[in-house]
Amino acid sequence: MRPDTPAENVDHTAEAARLERTAGLYPEDAEALLLRAAAHLELSGDRPTATTLYDRLLSSTADLDNPHLVRALKASNLWEYGHEAESRAIIEGVRSASPQDPAPWVIVAEALESHDELEAAHETYTEAVHRLLTDVPEPPYATHPLLFGRHRVRRMLGESHDEWDALADTVHSLPITLDELHDPKRVWSLGSENPAELEAEILRLRAELGAYREALSRPFPVAILHWPATELTELLEAYPSLEAEYPSHQAHLTTIESALRELASSGTPNLGIVTGTVPSYEAFAASELSSPSDATLLPQYATTLAARGRAVAWPPQQGAACWCGSGQPYGQCHGTTA
Predict the structure, then answer these.
(1) What are 272's strand-pairing partners?
(2) CA nearest 133: which of 330, 327, 336, 317?
(3) Which helix H or strand E contains 192, and what residues bound it?
């Protein structure tokens, strides 16, 4: 499914089947592809089959990139079709594991919140922000839903603002304030006969919808292909004609950063970097019935990797490691300005 495909025009069952087939062709990307397939199955209403995909991933002999995320998604899905006890047990397991990735925390907290377990949701959000954001100078983008969710639940519980709520206010960028968006009394305004109140509520709903659309627009970035030093050496030894594209590894890294900055300055959103490997590239070339020495395949290979969920967002968050693999913070490596 292309990112610009209207949701009402999507055959979720067919899309899930396509992603399962693709996962069979690219086992190294099975985790990302099967998670997307499970999401389509949930949207189609086939939640039991979605659970089967989550179980397939969890029982796989391959190491998962984010097993806590898979468990959190399974728990959320199970609760939606009547398996509350099992879902609660999995949620407790995710919380006990204390993952460093914010996504599992968000999913289990929202599952509790959606089933009116507000106290438990508040505890989960609070535990997550304490573990992930204590002594962090600037909250990474991925942690924003934790701050917003905690703010929302605290408003419903009638709690007064604290320092984490203040932090949520500072990272919130929409024109409607969080206090307005999370006002528990908003639901009553939908039944109002006052046109001004209805218009104000429509503006709030549009702001919320804009935030959701922005979040959903991220999985398929415009991606630039990056070769680690060892992979680039192997690539050029096997296919010397590509030296015209990659005169040196240092020049390759410089070209990536400058290309991304140029795209950003032109207003191109949702930029990312995909890392190539020689075996993967050779397999891609074979699937295209072409030779790996054909330089025109390189951008197609990058797009294919991005579509398979392999892209890392650019630029990295403040304080995060540089995309080049140097181990240095981005701001001290390729993130330095001229």
Answers:
(1) 223, 313
(2) 317
(3) none
